[in-house]
Write a structure and sequence with these properties.
This protein is an alpha+beta fold and about 210 residues long. Helices cover about 20% and strands about 50% of the residues.
Length: about 210
C-alpha cells in the first residue's frame, strides 16, 4: 500500500470510528415535543340518522418526551373537555351535562408510554405511539398512528382516534326519534416545537 492509499485508509478509519463513537450518544438523547394550543385543532364527528354533528375541543397543554433509540415515551397531553362545542347551545348543554359530565370530569388526557417505527429528526416519519387515554374518569389503552413532519425545530402531525364512548361508560344520547352512533371520531391536527434534551455524563436528562 503506497503512502497516498495509507493516508486515505487512515482518514476513512478515523471517520468511521468517530461516527461509531458519537452516533449512540446522539440517538440516545431524549427529545421533547411541546404542542402549541393556539395552533392545535381537536375536532369531533358524531353521526346520527338525520345528519352528522361536528364540533371542537380546545387543547390545554401538551408535552411529549421520547427517545428514538429505545422507544421510550412519557409526558401528558391535556384536552379541555369543558370547551367542547358543536354550534348548538341546547345540544351542547345536554352533551356536557348528560354525556361528558364535564363539571365532574373537566379534562381528557393522553399519557404516552412507547413509540415505534423509524424516526427522522429532519423529515417526515410515520410512528406509532402507545399510551393511555383518560376520559370520564376511566383509563383506556390506545395506539395512535402519527405521521410526523419536522422542519428545523417546528413539528406538525395529524392523527385520528375512534372513541367508543358508550362502551367506555358514557350515556348514549339517542331517543326514540333520533338515533346516534355509539362511537365518536376525533381528529387532531397539532403543531409544536421540538427540542433535543441535554444529557449529562451519567445519561440523565437535564
Amino acid at each position: 500500500m503506497n503512502r497516498r492509499h495509507r493516508t486515505i485508509f487512515l482518514f476513512i478509519s478515523v471517520v468511521i470510528l468517530c461516527v461509531a463513537g458519537c452516533s449512540p450518544a446522539l440517538w440516545a438523547q431524549e427529545m421533547t415535543l411541546e404542542l402549541d394550543p393556539t395552533n392545535t385543532k381537536v375536532e369531533f364527528t358524531l353521526s346520527d340518522v338525520l345528519h352528522t354533528v361536528h364540533g371542537t375541543f380546545a387543547l390545554k397543554s401538551g408535552l411529549i418526551h421520547f427517545n428514538p433509540s429505545n422507544g421510550s415515551a412519557s409526558g401528558l397531553v391535556v384536552v379541555d373537555v369543558k370547551s367542547g362545542q358543536s354550534g348548538n347551545n341546547s345540544r351542547d348543554r345536554k352533551m356536557h351535562k348528560d354525556i361528558l359530565q364535564s363539571e365532574q370530569y373537566p379534562d381528557a388526557t393522553f399519557t404516552p408510554t412507547k413509540m415505534s417505527g423509524p424516526f427522522s429528526p429532519q423529515d417526515s416519519s410515520e410512528i406509532q405511539v402507545d399510551g393511555t387515554f383518560r376520559i370520564h374518569g376511566s383509563d383506556h389503552p390506545i395506539t395512535l398512528v402519527v405521521p410526523l413532519q419536522i422542519s428545523g425545530s417546528a413539528a406538525n402531525f395529524k392523527t385520528h382516534m375512534v372513541l367508543p364512548y358508550v362502551k367506555w361508560g358514557m350515556k348514549n344520547p339517542s331517543t326514540f326519534v333520533l338515533r346516534v352512533a355509539d362511537k365518536v371520531d376525533l381528529d387532531i391536527a397539532a403543531s409544536g416545537h421540538l427540542v433535543q434534551d441535554a444529557q449529562s455524563a451519567d445519561g440523565k436528562v437535564r
